């Protein structure tokens, strides 16, 4: 499911290839935004669905992605976090106290949140660790137009890497890794299931 989601997101036809790697302090409509280099969000990035609850916002970056401290993604006019995806070919991370709505997907590197991040969505990696620090994670709101399969229930997942937490995080959703370890969740509140490589998924 993870690989299929990545393939589907990368197969979408780009609608904007001219935006710089610096996002924030602006309002954008639905589309597939493609930047060949690294990218970041500073301040508030507002996504306007124009009244369409199925409006899709995809941001594809050719290198690393990060947010500045206290940045946020705001959703207006029926935009939903279930239809917001940021895909980075490099590491993906949020700065401290970021409010992020959507799915963060690192393809070939680690994905992480800074302390105090509020994530309404998922944090995923294909090849790399996934880690959070004193963060609050809830699953995306709304119904995604993308096919997610079992990934839809995961707040944190990596195909090849470790999954870790530091601090008093609160996670509503499943946690898992296909090839790695899970650690640091003793001090966290987790309302979902923690899946390790040795577990057999009853849905498979």
Distance between the termini: 11 Å
Give the averaged pLDDT, no decimals.
Answer: 96
Largest sheet: 11 strands, parallel
What's the SSE pattern? HEEEEEEEEEEEEEEEEEEEEEE
Residue fraction in strands = 35-45%
Q: C-alpha Rg, in Å?
A: 16 Å
Low-confidence runs: none
**Beta strand count:** 22
Tally of contiguous helical segments: 1
Shape category: globular
Helix amount: under 10%
Broad structural category = mainly beta
Ordered list of secondary-structure elements with their pairings:
Elements: H1 2-11, E1 22-23, E2 26-28, E3 31-35, E4 39-41, E5 44-48, E6 57-61, E7 65-67, E8 72-76, E9 84-88, E10 92-93, E11 99-106, E12 111-112, E13 118-127, E14 130-133, E15 136-138, E16 154-160, E17 163-166, E18 170-171, E19 174-177, E20 182-183, E21 189-190, E22 194-195
Parallel strand pairs: 1-4, 2-5, 3-6, 4-7, 5-8, 6-9, 7-10, 9-11, 10-12, 11-13, 12-14, 13-15, 13-16, 14-17, 15-18, 16-19, 17-20, 18-21, 19-22
